[in-house]
C-alpha cells in the first residue's frame, strides 16, 4: 500500500497497535478476517464504510479532555488533549465499523493513549533514521481524500469535523502515515511468504466460508496480505522494544 487515499489505513494501524499495546493477541483474529481482507483489498469500499460509520458515532463531553491538557509524555515529548480527542473519535469509528463494542469508554481511552504513544515512538525513531516526507507527498494524498467529496465544504463537514481534525492535524496525520510506510519499507526486514503458508491460510478461509474464490484467483492477494501481517508483527516488536527502552508516562 504505497499511496494513501483515505485515513482508513491510519485507523486500522491505530487499532492494531493499540490492541498489541494492551496485551491482546492480534494473531488470533488476523487469519480469515473478512473485514481485514476488505480493508487491504478495496480501499474505496472501505472508505465508504468509514464515512458511513462516522454518521452514527457520538462522543460525549465526558469522554473528551481539555485540548491543552498533557495526556502522556514520550521521551520528554508531550502529547496533548487535542491529539487525544481526535484519535479517540477515530478509534471509536473504527471499532464501530468492525462491529466492536464501543460502550466501554475506558477501553477506548486505553487504546487511544497506547496508539498515540506508539505513533510518537515510531515518529521519533523514523526521525532518528533520517526518514523524511516531502510536503508535496502529503499534499497529493490530501487531494486524493478531498477528491471523494463534492467540494471543500462537504469535505470539512463530513470528514474533518466528524473526525475532529483540523487541516493542520490532517497534514500531520497523513505525514505520519507516509513516514510509517517508508519506515516499514526501509527499516524492517524483507518478508518471504512461501506457497505452503498461502495454502494453509487459504485452507483456513475455506473452513470459515463457502464462498471463497479459487486459490489461483486470489493467491497473489493472499501472499501480499500475509506479508503485510508479518511486517506489522515486526513493527509491533519494534514498538515494544522502544517502549521498554524509553521513558513513557500516561497522565490521564
UniProtKB/TrEMBL annotation:
It comes from the Bacteria. Residues 1-18 form the signal peptide. Residues 212-245 form a coiled coil. InterPro entries: PrsA_foldase, Trigger_fact/SurA_dom_sf. Pfam families: SurA_N_3. The keyword Kinase does not apply. Residues 22-68 are annotated as: Disordered. Residues 55-65 have a biased composition (Acidic residues). The keyword Coiled coil applies. The lineage of its organism: Bacteria, Bacillati, Bacillota, Bacilli, Bacillales. Keywords: Coiled coil, Signal. Gene3D superfamilies: Porin chaperone SurA, peptide-binding domain (1.10.4030.10). Residues 40-54 have a biased composition (Low complexity). This is SurA N-terminal domain-containing protein.
Amino acid at each position: 500500500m504505497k499511496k494513501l487515499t483515505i485515513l482508513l489505513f491510519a485507523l486500522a494501524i491505530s487499532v492494531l497497535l493499540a490492541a498489541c499495546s494492551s496485551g491482546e493477541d492480534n494473531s488470533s483474529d488476523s487469519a480469515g478476517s473478512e473485514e481485514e481482507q476488505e480493508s487491504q483489498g478495496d480501499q474505496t469500499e472501505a472508505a465508504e464504510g468509514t464515512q458511513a460509520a462516522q454518521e452514527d458515532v457520538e462522543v460525549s463531553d465526558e469522554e473528551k479532555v481539555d485540548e491543552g491538557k498533557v495526556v502522556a509524555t514520550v521521551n520528554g515529548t508531550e502529547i496533548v488533549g487535542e491529539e487525544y480527542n481526535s484519535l479517540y473519535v477515530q478509534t471509536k469509528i473504527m471499532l464501530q465499523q468492525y462491529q466492536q463494542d464501543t460502550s466501554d469508554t475506558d477501553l477506548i481511552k486505553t487504546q487511544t493513549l497506547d496508539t498515540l504513544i506508539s505513533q510518537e515512538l515510531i515518529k521519533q525513531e523514523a526521525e532518528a533514521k533520517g526518514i523524511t516526507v516531502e510536503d508535496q507527498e502529503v499534499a497529493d494524498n490530501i487531494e486524493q481524500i478531498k477528491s471523494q467529496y463534492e467540494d471543500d465544504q462537504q469535505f470539512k463537514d463530513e470528514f474533518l469535523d466528524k473526525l475532529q481534525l483540523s487541516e493542520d492535524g490532517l497534514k500531520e496525520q497523513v505525514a505520519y502515515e507516509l513516514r510509517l510506510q517508508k519506515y516499514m519499507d526501509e527499516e524492517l526486514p524483507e518478508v518471504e511468504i512461501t506457497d505452503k503458508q498461502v495454502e494453509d491460510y487459504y485452507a483456513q478461509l475455506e473452513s470459515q466460508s463457502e464462498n471463497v474464490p479459487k486459490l489461483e484467483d486470489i493467491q497473489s492477494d493472499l501472499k501480499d496480505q500475509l506479508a503485510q501481517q508479518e511486517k506489522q508483527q515486526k513493527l509491533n516488536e519494534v514498538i515494544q522494544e522502544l517502549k521498554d527502552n524509553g521513558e513513557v508516562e500516561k497522565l490521564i
